[in-house]
């Protein structure tokens, strides 16, 4: 039996789905998955079988950090853990410190789910973050990237060496009885409402599109620190009847089923599950041309636009709303089947755990 401790400080969004997929599909006679998560920072509830330790989010406090490291050491010894798989930067730093101070031998995997250094930062702060990311990967036996874009960035910035780096695309299940809503002028995004996801640009694009397609409906589903601000902005612009920031939604299936276009305006990504879901739901996509998005637009299943170019993005969305785009819909689904099936993601990670 191979035991893997999935260390996850930011249990929410794409990280949550990734860890949940591993737990739901890799717990077998050969592999035991043990998620060790924090739920307070993103305010997501964890399943009863998960190990919850909210001190991870306060690892910058020396006493809490030491307690977390001791707890990790106890879990490793009591459960005969073979691999520690750290997810995102905070967890990566915690595992780095654990291996530095308490356990040099344990095998470590790391998945960034988008490198923090890709965020718009002051030059000095970015330099510090890059050093931290390089420290994290220095202790890892294998760094699993969730997209070719993410790996290319890591290699270009010398965050990781090529011999340690592999790509396993995120994957999702195929929705049942899915039929593309070609006639509905509905544009959606499923994302956290925070700075990384750039929701203000979503509003700006919607405002521009509505001048040409006044019947269009824009839906942004996701909670976050900017939710109230975005709701206030749509009210002030007089477009709240057409642009809806609906907050966190547990069941997003109805939103995908009514959408004609998926619009993501993020500043950077690893490999967003929400866009992969859109492909699986046969929806054409309009995405900001950033890391994590570029590999999701191939063979005319959608378009990339330069971040900040509102007129260009609005034109692309308007074209989709005003045209019959069944072929682009079919290409989205074909891309999903070729590269982003859940079964492929799970089997590839299992192979890395067993042989990587």
From TrEMBL:
Gene3D superfamilies documented for this protein: Glycogen Phosphorylase B (3.40.50.2000)
Residues of the signal peptide: none
Glycosyltransferase subfamily 4-like N-terminal domain location: 13-172
Alphabetized GO MF terms: glycosyltransferase activity
InterPro entries: Glyco_trans_1, Glyco_trans_4-like_N, Glycosyltransferase_grp1
Record domain Glycosyl transferase family: where: 182-322
Protein name, UniProt field: Glycosyltransferase family 1 protein
Species name: Levilactobacillus bambusae
């Amino acid at each position: 039996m191979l035991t893997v401790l999935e260390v996850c400080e930011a249990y929410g969004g794409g990280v949550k789905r990734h860890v949940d997929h591993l737990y739901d599909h890799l717990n077998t006679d050969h592999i035991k998955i043990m998620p060790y998560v924090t739920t307070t920072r993103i305010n997501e509830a964890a399943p009863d079988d998960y190990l919850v330790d909210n001190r991870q989010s306060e690892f910058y406090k020396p006493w809490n950090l030491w307690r977390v490291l001791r707890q990790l050491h106890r879990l490793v010894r009591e459960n005969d853990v073979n691999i520690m798989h750290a997810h995102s930067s905070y967890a990566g730093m915690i595992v780095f410190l654990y291996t530095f101070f308490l356990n040099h031998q344990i095998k470590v995997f790391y998945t960034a789910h988008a490198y923090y250094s890709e965020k718009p930062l002051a030059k000095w702060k970015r330099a510090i973050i890059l050093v931290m990311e390089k420290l994290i990967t220095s202790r890892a036996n294998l760094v699993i990237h969730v997209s070719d874009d993410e790996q290319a960035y890591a290699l270009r910035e010398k965050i990781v060496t090529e011999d340690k780096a592999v790509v396993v695309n995120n994957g999702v299940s195929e929705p049942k009885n899915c039929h593309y809503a070609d006639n509905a002028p509905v544009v959606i995004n499923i994302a956290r409402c925070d700075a990384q996801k750039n929701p203000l640009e979503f509003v700006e694009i919607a405002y521009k599109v509505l001048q040409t397609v006044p019947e269009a409906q824009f839906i942004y589903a996701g909670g976050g620190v900017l939710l109230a601000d975005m709701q206030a902005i749509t009210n002030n612009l007089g477009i709240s009847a057409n642009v809806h920031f609906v907050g966190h939604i547990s069941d997003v299936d109805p939103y995908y089923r009514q959408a004609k276009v998926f619009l993501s305006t993020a500043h950077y990504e690893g490999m967003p599950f929400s866009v992969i879901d859109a492909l699986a739901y046969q929806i054409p996509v309009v995405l900001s041309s950033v890391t994590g998005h570029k590999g999701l637009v191939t063979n005319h299943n959608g378009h990339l636009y330069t971040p900040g170019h509102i007129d260009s993005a609005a034109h692309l969305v308007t074209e989709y709303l005003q045209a019959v785009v069944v072929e682009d819909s079919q290409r989205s689904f074909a891309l999903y089947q070729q590269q982003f099936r859940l079964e492929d993601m799970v089997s590839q990670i299992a192979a890395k755990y067993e042989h990587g």
